[in-house]
Design goal:
Number of helices: 5
Structural class: alpha/beta
Shape: globular
Radius of gyration: 16 Å
Oligomer: single chain
CATH topology: Rossmann fold
Distance between the termini: 14 Å
Helix content: 40-55%
Amino acid sequence: MQVLVASASRHGSTAAISETIAATLTGHGLDVHRLPLQRVASIEPYDAVVFGSAVYMGRWLKPARDFTTRHAHDLRGKPVWLFSSGPVGERGKTGHIPDADAAMAVVEARGHEVFAGRLDVDALAGAERLLVKAMGGHSSDDRDWEAIRAWADGIAQVLSAVRNDPL
């Protein structure tokens, strides 16, 4: 079974989450291809898709929104899971991301998970750093790698069942 794991990441935190998801799925014997969403030309070769985006100001990044629109028809015919990354601290525990909610409906995804993210204020460029500091933001890495792997394990179990008993 060929699985695409793709993400839109601004500073690399979401890409690292997609790497962990891909490694976990590979560990279950799935043939996984990991790409940035901007580099996905077609989803035709894939039997399943897991994709997500960093969240900034409550929104998915534009490449994730564009990917959803561009591939909506083809995604509806495959097992699809979505993830979001970006909230840090206590905000990371909320699960309402409007762009992800819309994507869930459009592509008929089987699930959506919100993972807390990482923020390195010192790595941000000028205006973004000033805005984050003005809002009281501080550097933090709240990613829960165990939860990310457990979520991917659940996807692998579903895909293994589909692989062993196709519809």
